[in-house]
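G., the chain you wanted modeled:
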Amino acid sequence: MRITAVTCVKNEGPFLLEWIAYNRLIGVTDFLFYSNDCTDGTDALLDALAARGGVMHLPNPAKGRAYQMEALKDCAHQSIVQQADWLWIADVDEFLNIHVGDHTIPALIEACQNPQAISLSFQFFANGGVESFSDRPVIDQFTNCHNPDIWCGETAIEVKTLTRRDFPLGYYGAHRPFIRKGADIRPRWCDGGGRQVPQKFLVAANPRRIRKFPAKGARQLATLNHYALRALDSYLVKNDRGDVNRENRAFDDTYWRERNDPAWEDRSILRLLPALQAALDEMKSDPDIARLHADCVARHKARRDELLAQPAYQAMRAQLQKASPLPPQEEDMLLRLGLM
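Predicted structure as tokens:
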């Protein structure tokens, strides 16, 4: 079975090897990376990996700012996607955690009785008080998350989707495929519990539920661990990667607080940690790969140091350090009830 993972990256160099190694463990056979405007060595590391096979690296084709949309439009024309039995579109901070069989994508597909699409619900993993970047597996550093069935007071949680080659495709979205207009069939489309997804989600009938549905019961077979925050210092570098001019507006910590809910502990993904560490050691036994990875790590730390020399980022770091551990919506509710 050929399974191709497609992702867009910008300055994700320190995290590439873990994500590739982990996805290979769960059955991904091929990778298509689109990169843009990298300054941390991401592109050089991807080129070296591509030269060794199993990885394809392309410049993002976007002419404007719609990087992900343009890349997903382009990927449908690439042979590495066209020849795949299944396509997995995800980001480098997202790890598919499969709870059945041998914990691989083929085992998940079998447990779901081979549908044409499987949408997996996010689980957002908190920062856990980790301030400094450490060059070791992300999945080992962060083990607390929100209640898996509720996020920020909402039962509907976003998903990412595995898509089979014969899906009646109109186009790929970042979170789910969209059915071709005029298609005379409705695909068998499961959630992470093996159940048919809600009809309004399937046909994209409700704009508020195009990329999410209620998570209760939706992760019996698999879930999607999302490490959106990582270490505090890496989060600062992640913000710098974007386009916000922090000097000219106040920093909004809502994104951080919404994803920093540590109410639940979930260590289930660590079942794969020994195999992951062995796979990483093997990848780094290639001296060029090890050197390029170390260069990405060094540049990541250097950029952190440059940012922390700026008053705006010093203030941002201090604000996040003292931010409430409660998501804004939960804190507002407690205030209304007079419980705070």
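The longest strand covers residues 156-164.

Shout if anything looks off.
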